[in-house]
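To the team - magnesium ion complex, inputs and output below.
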Amino acid sequence: RAKEAGGAGWRFYDATMNEEVSERLALRNGLRQALERGEFVLHYQPQFSLEDGTLVGVEALVRWRHPEQGMVPPMRFIPEAEESGLIVPIGLWILREACRQAAAWRTAGLEVPRVAVNLSAKQFQRGDVAADVLEALSAAGLPPTGLELELTESILLRGADTVLDTVRRLRGLGVHLSIDDFGTGYSSLAYLQHFPVDKLKIDQSFVRRLGEGGDAQVIVTTIIQLARSLGLGTIAEGVEDAATAERLSALGCLQGQGFHFARPMPPAELAVLLAGRQRAEAALRPS
Ligand code: C2E
Ligand code: MG
Ligand code: MG
Ligand code: MG
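Output:
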């Protein structure tokens, strides 16, 4: 078969491979430059209590403001940033910037109880995450309770002593910890006993299919019950409509995040939204 395909087939294959490699190298160099030139920005997506509608926090989500391509979503560059190790310096910038922004909101009188930052596994393998977090908090003047770190199951499942040690140190600082995309990782729940986390984030793939009943509903119900019996909080991500929010609330899920409530937005836009909410609440309070 290989003979039939002939030399041309191989040349085509080689060309494709080379193209892929050079595209990745270009992306890698682009990411390095983006960091130097300050082209990364953070958008923030509000998270709400499903019980009383109050704002419980915001998640920081990185974007690359590319000079030619416009806003590049994280899925287009985070994988290469992780592969190349550049996620370590980029992640450090994200951590510092999110803490700085959270402290600035407080100074401006805007009530953002907590900012959640996503961490990659690479940030745990290399470098000293706990030291970075402590440094970012004190540089910003943000109390540790104002920061939440979103870990993935893959970080915890690696289960090395150093990971456990780091997670315990972070928790010891008073930083909140959640497990992102919960339910999509390998199904070892044993690590939940060892890692002192606060909250499970129910993955949006289950949330989106909740209305269909069936498997998704069973999984979401099970996660909520598991969290409750371990004394952990729950937040559903990817809540896109009112019916889903109501279903989640009825199942006992405590918090929600998704387009139904608000999309991720630049900090200036979030400030306008929060100021409006705070004015409305103040107007309702008896004076
Ligand atoms: P994630 O942490 O699970 O973030 C949730 C993603 O779902 C975000 O996409 C958000 O915009 C999107 N989303 C929120 N609500 C809805 C909804 O109702 N419907 C739908 N269809 N989507 C919704 P985004 O911002 O594109 O981020 C994608 C992923 O990129 C994140 O998933 C996270 O894994 C990664 N990422 C984003 N920012 C960072 C970061 O600062 N550091 C690291 N390490 N990873 C990040
Ligand atoms: Mg997340
Ligand atoms: Mg998630
Ligand atoms: Mg997700």
